[in-house]
Design brief:
This protein is of the alpha/beta class. It is built from twelve helices and eight strands.
């Protein structure tokens, strides 16, 4: 399908709905094309503007979704409205459904051992016909990347969910792609913690009003308050600065 790609805040976002994203990913898998499936939110856009290597990796991705209500809001302010937010955890669940329906193989990489183990166990119960070819925790060093790449090469999963924090997961997936692994790699952040039940997700009505980030801050204020409150201010300033500069 023909995709509309919007340029904003030094990066790109594809104007895709959830359903359209799943369809495009399915095309990549069916045609055995490698893919780094990217989702950007305010925090990641702030980060890529400071880190040229991260910016280059993100902007080279074939699919970049708006994984954050803030990005959808920014697109409207800048006069380039996106269809909808494509939340990473929801997209992961949709791709798991697709994998079970189509017989695609999947691999889970990241989080603590007990978290990824619980995630796999829960997913197996929900999707009994899903072909899970392997999983491992996210506690390893850069020297282990080669070994993990070889494991993925041998197992040959069609979808790999990477539950590791940014920007490490982007650097790791970039390394895997340079090793010519023909998988669909999707960074899912802390989604394993939610799926495993370690961290509750915001109620649907909180998600719908775009305040899921505040729910997360309330859960972990010590770790997240600066990232979200200071980061949101930085993001808002960047949006209006771009709007002003374009008017000039």
């Amino acid at each position: 399908m023909l995709m509309e790609r919007i340029e904003m805040l030094e990066t790109y976002v594809d104007n895709l709905s959830m359903k359209e994203t799943v369809s495009v990913v399915n095309d990549f898998i069916a045609n055995k094309r490698p893919l780094h499936l990217m989702g950007v939110n305010a925090d990641k856009i702030n980060e890529l503007r400071r880190k040229p290597k991260l910016k280059k990796i993100i902007n080279s991705c074939d699919i970049i979704n708006a994984d954050g209500a803030s990005v959808v809001w920014a697109s409207k302010v800048l006069g380039k409205p996106l269809k909808e937010r494509v939340a990473g955890i929801d997209l992961m669940c949709e791709l798991i459904k697709l994998a079970e329906e189509k017989g695609y193989s999947v691999y889970f990489l990241g989080a603590r051992q007990e978290v990824v183990q619980d995630t796999v166990d829960i997913v197996k119960k929900q999707y009994p016909d899903l072909n899970i070819v392997g999983y491992r925790n996210g506690y390893f060093q850069k020297k282990d990347w080669t070994k993990i790449a070889e494991e993925l090469r041998n197992l040959n999963p069609q979808i790999v969910f990477v539950g590791i924090t940014s920007p490490l997961k982007e650097y790791l997936v970039d390394y895997f792609q340079k090793q010519k692994l023909s998988c669909v790699f999707m960074g899912v952040g802390g989604s394993f913690d939610v799926v495993s039940g370690k961290i509750p997700r915001a109620p649907k009505w909180v998600q719908d009003i775009g305040m899921e980030w505040l729910f997360r801050v309330i859960q972990e204020p010590g770790r997240l308050w600066k990232r979200y409150f200071c980061g949101n201010v930085e993001f808002i300033v960047s949006v209006y600065k771009e709007k002003y500069e374009k008017r000039k």
